[in-house]
Write a structure and sequence with these properties.
five-stranded mixed β-sheet
């Protein structure tokens, strides 16, 4: 299925986004020759998506040059199109230091989820992107200015550290020449419809996820683009909903740990209570997420563990 003009939403003079399963930012920078340099924020889940994006750019912005892909993080559904786009256009790839390493060695993704060398069933495009070399490592929080031929003002790209969902995830706060600001939030935010469908969201570090949610709610922008789901103008409401999903999962875990359980017993209990039928990838992804919750709750002193009969058991304090 091709990308269409109906999916393209203009947010300001030069900033658009494409409403897709993984939302994609598109910044158009006019050049002196009347053509455009294009910057993408994330590239979707595979090479097919990359090809569709490139076809759309060529049709919608004839003669344009894909200058760079700005990746919020290295999950396959956000960087899976990179390899095709780099191969076809020679564009640059920008991301944070931690995510750069994982994009160049994507097999680490499935190793993290599995906790070792994964079974082949997990080696799908949904979890394993093709390797992609990062050409610009964004060190810490920084600001990049890009000149526009149609304005005396520059477009600003602020890199915002938002870890938790993944190792070194970042957001991009783009300031346009007309004064509008757009935050591409990656997966620190999920849209209301996405949360309703997937109440237990994948996260690598629960504590840092909560910190990043509090942090993003302090930013001033006209639009906030979650990694998945609908655009919002009120970040406080959607950040509170994302936080609520985390806290309700915490409460569910604490309730289940009134009696001791192994991690897999807890996973089954949480899935049953949430009405989730676990398949292989969900078993691993939600299982990894539950382990992250256990680590966070343990460090907060809310739960304890003990080894009994060669089993690790978790229990509420």
């Amino acid at each position: 299925m091709s990308v269409t003009n109906d999916q393209l939403v203009r947010l300001s003079t030069h900033i658009f986004y494409l409403k897709m399963p993984t939302n994609t930012g598109l910044i158009t920078i006019p050049q002196q020759d009347g053509k455009f340099d294009i910057y993408l924020v994330d590239s979707g889940n595979d090479e097919t998506n990359g090809a569709r994006l490139l076809d759309f750019i060529k049709e919608r912005f004839p003669g344009s040059n894909l200058r760079a892909i700005l990746n919020t993080h290295s999950h396959a559904d956000h960087c899976g199109g990179n390899s095709y786009l780099v191969r076809e256009t020679g564009c640059e790839v920008w991301t944070s230091k931690g995510e750069a390493y994982l994009m160049e060695f994507p097999e680490i993704e499935t190793q993290l989820v599995w906790g070792g060398t994964p079974i082949h069933d997990l080696r799908s495009k949904y979890l394993l992107a093709l390797p992609c070399r990062v050409t610009r490592v964004l060190e810490g929080e920084c600001e990049i200015f890009v000149p526009c031929a149609d304005s005396s003002e520059n477009i600003s790209i602020k890199v915002i550290s938002l870890p938790g969902h993944y190792v070194d995830q970042v957001g991009f706060l783009i300031g346009d020449t007309d004064g509008k600001k757009v935050m591409f939030a990656g997966d620190v935010l999920s849209g209301r419809n996405s949360i309703g469908k997937h109440w237990i969201q994948y996260l690598l570090d629960e504590t840092k996820t909560k910190e990043s949610l509090r942090k993003i709610s302090t930013f001033d922008a006209d639009f906030f683009i979650p990694g998945h789901g609908d655009i919002v103008t009120d970040v406080e409401g959607i950040s509170e909903l994302n936080m609520l999903a985390i806290l309700e999962t915490e409460d569910m875990i604490l309730d289940e740990l009134k009696s001791p359980k192994t991690m897999e017993e807890l996973l089954k209990a949480v899935a049953d209570r949430s009405g989730i039928t676990l398949k292989t990838s969900q078993f691993c992804l939600i299982g990894s997420t539950i382990r992250s919750y256990l680590s966070g709750l343990y460090e907060e002193g809310k739960i304890k563990y003990f080894i009994e009969n060669n089993r690790m058991l978790w229990q509420k304090q």
